[in-house]
Amino acid sequence: MLTPLDIHNKEFKKVMRGYSVDEVDGFLDEIIRDFEFLFKQNMEYEEALKKSNEQIEYYRSMEDTLQNTMVLAQKMAEESKRNAEKETELVIWEARKKAEQIVGDAHDEVTETIRKVERLKAYEKQIKAKLHSFLHTQIQLVADAVIAEDNPEGDKDLDELLENY
């Protein structure tokens, strides 16, 4: 490819009936200016194209990195979801086991309480029977004492006492 310097340094042979040297030199100067402008512009475009290609390559690399990051993030999200589901299942299982244990303990407590109540009822019956027997004996003793004294008012008190009993 020609450069503006190549055009500037080009020399033509002089022949007898050739073109006017001044006109050719003037035209070549004009061509050199236009060619120099176009040459510089072409170099700028090539540089801009090179930078654009570098940026495209950078963005492609960035895109690949982002895609890999997205895939990794998706895998991590799925794994986190699986772990959360497993943890939820474990928590539910532990809660059920604890609930079963609490219900079992409560059942055992109720059963024990029922046994205690039954023992207390049996004890109450024994106490009532003993108290009944004791009171009956005491009433009998009082009655015997009243009869022994031969107290007619004592008989009346005894009758009231027996009625209330």
Description:
Helix content is 90%, strand content 0%. 0% of the residues are buried. The longest helix has 129 residues. The model has no long low-confidence stretch (mean pLDDT 87). It is mainly α. It has one domain.
Low-confidence segments = none
Shape: rod-shaped
Largest sheet geometry? none
Secondary-structure element series? HHH
Strand fraction equals: under 5%
Return the domain count. 1
Mean pLDDT: 87
* Contiguous helical run count: 3
**Coarse structural class:** mainly alpha
Task: Compile the SSE list and pairings.
Blueprint (H helix, E strand, L loop, with lengths): L3 H6 L11 H129 L2 H13 L1
Summarize the structure.
This protein is mainly α and 165 residues long. 90% of the residues lie in helices and 0% in strands.
Features:
mainly alpha, 165 residues
